[in-house]
Design a protein that fits this description.
Layout lengths: L5 H8 L2 H16 L12 H10 L6 H17 L7 H31 L4 H16 L19 H4 L2 H28 L5 H25 L8 E9 L8 H25 L6 E3 L8 E5 L13 H21 L3 E10 L6 E10 L2 E9 L37 E4 L4 E7 L6 H13 L6 E7 L7 H17 L3 E6 L4 E3 L5 E4 L6 E8 L7 H5 L2 H21 L2 H7 L12
Parallel strand pairs: 1-2, 1-10, 2-4, 3-4, 8-9, 9-10
Antiparallel strand pairs: 1-13, 4-5, 5-6, 7-8, 10-11, 11-12
Helix pairs in contact: 2-3, 2-4, 3-5, 3-8, 4-5, 5-6, 5-15, 6-8, 6-15, 8-9, 8-13, 12-13
Length: about 575
Amino acid sequence: MKSIGTDEKKNRLFSKVHFLFIAGVFCYCGSLPPYGFWLLVFLVPVFWTFVIEHPKPICFRIIYFVTFCFWSMVLLGGIICSHQLTVLVLLLFAAYLSIYWSLFVYASRIAVCRFGIPSVWAVPVCWIGCEYLRNHLFGGFSSFSLEHALYSQPLLIQIADIGGRYLVGGMIMLVGAGVASGIRSLWKRERSVKRYGWCFVAGFVFVATLGYGFFQTAGSHISQSNLTIAVLQGNIPLMYDDYQEQAVKAVKQFIDLTKKAAQNAQTEQQPLDLIITPEAMASIRLLKYKPKLKPAEFDRWADHHVDYWEDRFVQLRTMVQRIGVPVLVGLLTFEFERPPKPKEFNSAMLIDPKNDQTEYRYDKMRLLMVGEYVPFSQYLPKNSFLKALCPELECGTKPVVIPLDGGRVLLAVNICYESTLPHFIRNQILTLKKQGQEPAILVNMSNDAWFLFSQQIDQHFATHVFRAVENRRPYVTSSNAGFSAIIDSRGVIQKIGKRREAEVVTGSVSTMDYRTPVYHYIGDLPSMLCMLGVFVLIFMEWYKNGNILFTIKNSPYYLCKSPQSR
């Protein structure tokens, strides 16, 4: 195997192949919301396929560095950092996320250059496999995914009800790889029937995707059985310097918006079935005690604190009774089991004006790392400064349905970060279905106040659209400093609030507009097989060369056989 000299390494830093990769990253950024140049998303795999098929050596350090710059920009560009260490944690997280794009290019070059697999198959399979890993390891992270560029194009995302968001991303990669094959043939004047054939395959997949989209979105989705729901949208950003003051201000805003929603319904003489507030705010707390437990036994909770929070909750319930409309409210739940510290939950609870006793409450099951918990905090010293990164909450143990209209309609709630995990929402629905409580509507409650109205709120909203299509259920979301909206089961946005504005978004949600999609039957199995394919490719390359160090230095990392005309 030929060794690479110093001069060649210097030249490699200025190789055009790296500029092709950077061009793909720029197209990636421009295609995502809020910029919204969604057609650019199909250029991303075109540029990256040229990188993967490039016959000369490429430097993965540059690819990794470019990717790290991208993730650092998007993570630090719109998140308020509560602690100096949070910046370091986000940079470490960016370094971690950068591994996946590098792994994608590495595995794809093995498939294309070593084993002669056509790029039109290798590129989408390796992409799906790496995205599956990113969405599952360490809690999962699916924001800023390639397919989010198409969230406003319902015709192109309907296939998500078959293979989830991964299938949409795979379709984009396959189409781009096919176009790249056609461009390469034209540029080099190759008369390769196979290459033009792969271009035809890519075109067929794109047309088939559009055809399936027309089929799924055709016809009327108006149902005679509807709920009128008002979702509240706040515009109070939270800053750590005056967090308590801003939190109180936000709660007051939502109380005013709740009253406004009820007044609007009364003025328009339109019955209102439900009001939904955003995720938990620190100024609304529910206190739950075990029998015979005295509040005074808890050091953190003096008697006047207990009375204060109980009085505020009574005031909230009184307001709901006065307006006469059920309210699904986000709050913090404190369960007192044993001194000196209660368990804290991020919760959603239905307050029904007609029922003072029964409380339907869902506790968030998937917490946000370094936002709601510190990893391995149980092993840290009691006074460790790492514990100051964020408040530590407890995980909920099971999904819960929220019954409306006497139990005729069931809602399934997810809170904030949970909406970014497709497998979590799917499993939540299937678990409830096994219990005979299949939800007809999905509800998300979020607090995007930490994102400074940046593109993070657009990315979060895009996940809601995909969850609606994947599970074929209407999706309703209420957010502070983000977007509140009503989305139907086709992923069509029926109503949405305006950016940076506090308002009430009211609309009709069909209670019959749901069905069982293919995704509920097969789940992420195809994506998991793609992930296994990535590892098989790397293992075969390792096995062929005898050791991993030799593989990294002498195969796709430095030297790659020229791709054959396929």
